[in-house]
Amino acid sequence: MASTIINKNTVPIFLAMIEESLRQIPSTDFQELKSSAKPPLCCLAVLEGVGILLNPAKQQWEWTDDKNLMSGSKHEFLQRLFDFNKDNINNKQLERLKSILDRTDCQPADIAKISRLCSELCIWLGAILEYSNQRQISN
């Protein structure tokens, strides 16, 4: 997904742009997702991708786990993403993340019709995956 639009030299710039885009999402979008009784499967998949990165030991993800990831404010949640050490992603995490992003229902443009937050998170996940792929090529 992201590899078609970014390369090794532009990945950090792309990540910074995505982070800024995430900051611009209204807190109401964040609260709306958190308060949802049962979000769409594509949103659950994206949040599982975030969880795979932030809590790699966890094997099964459910909506309650996603809600726990989003506990606190939008700012706190985003800060956890931005502070995430993208240089320490293992191959198992990458495989799990790739399997989510390869799903036909996990395309940012389609997700944007449902949730801007999840769409931007999906783009962020794609950029993290591309960053890791480029890093492996460089090493």
Automatic annotation (TrEMBL):
It holds the Pfam family MT. GO terms for molecular function: dynein intermediate chain binding; dynein light intermediate chain binding. Transmembrane segments: none annotated. One of its GO terms (biological process) is microtubule-based movement. Residues 17-131 form the Dynein heavy chain coiled coil stalk domain. One of its GO terms (cellular component) is dynein complex. Signal peptide: none annotated. PANTHER family: DYNEIN HEAVY CHAIN 6, AXONEMAL-LIKE-RELATED. This is Dynein heavy chain coiled coil stalk domain-containing protein.
